[in-house]
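can u pls check wat happens w/ 3-methyl-2-oxobutanoic acid
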Amino acid sequence: APSPAAPPRRRRPQYIPNHIPDPSYVRIFDTTLRDGEQSPGATLTSKEKLDVARQLSKLGVDIIEAGFPAASKDDFEAVKTIAKQVGNAVDEDGYVPVICGLSRCNEKDIRTAWEAVKYAKRPRIHTFIATSEIHMQYKLRKSKEEVLEIARSMVKFARSLGCDDVEFSPEDAGRSDREFLYQILGEVIKAGATTLNIPDTVGITLPSEFGRLIADIKANTPGIENVIISTHCQNDLGLSTANTLAGAHAGARQLEVTVNGIGERAGNASLEEVVMAIKCRGEHVLGGLYTGINPKHITMASKMVEEYTGLQLQPHKAIVGANAFAHESGIHQDGMLKHKGTYEIISPEDIGLERSNDAGIVLGKLRSSYQNGLKLNFMRDAGRYLARLKSHFGLANYERVTDADLIALVSDEVFQP
Ligand code: KIV
């Protein structure tokens, strides 16, 4: 049964690039195929990218950033294929996702991005330029005035190609001068940007600071009421999910995430964490926010990305880690057998995961004396095997005996009672 904390899904409002008819609705922009693929060693084939894009559409992702078309011919072709196939297919809710391509702020990149995404029903160009002092001085070697002019003219150029959905990102916004941010964002709005994405590119802000940044941009940028504010939080201090939620609380209505939180360096805000936090707490703590994501497809998306990228999840990864619904200590197991809400705020079924046994119970050394109350025959019998297991393996050194180990062991005649 769905957990009581997670309310039923609501209908998503109609898609309009620069406006969301319901102010409580939060768009999910997935960049697994772009920023996620920038994780060292995570290169995907075109076929794998297409599979992931299809799964993202099934999940109910609003915007799929399919790649960086100017980066390589392969990326261009992959984005184009996704635009044609996923960008024209209606999902389970009758929605067609936006297909987005990234570009630097130059005509060649922007034109290439447009050539790749234009086949989608809802194409978007995402263009970016750095606005922090350190990036402008050392990386771009450009003055503020030059950066301002490039941003303004390139957003205008993107719109001139016939694209009515243009996202602009001031890279390293987390370390940029506030007054300069308000100025450049105001100029790109006038030039036709429909979404303003605020990246904490180096993951340096704390949640209170990032929330303040979004609130200040909302309060001080001319014309901001005519566009959508977005977050893009890197995870260098392990704060990307917290920062993303702080951004949503402060008024951002597009959140950029990746499946399993993969991405440059320490990764990005993870889709499953952000979505489930909004699902569990959106109503009570975040002023009624909700997303269009169907969490039942989270497990499949997570496993697909893990397998294709080869980036294995840590067992204790929130929501999708192997231990996310495993209960080791005897006290916890006792609680779980009496009422699952004692130690679970989400049911595995909510994210499309079947429990491996009735209560997610793991046989380990912490509760090696625990025998009472286990409902499953298999788990009850497991207690009787424990002494044998201990003497055979030396259980103190045997970190964890999984259900699969036990099934194999109890079916072995050595361990027959
Ligand atoms: O981290 C970053 O700043 C980015 C932008 C291109 C959005 O990935």
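The mean pLDDT is 89.
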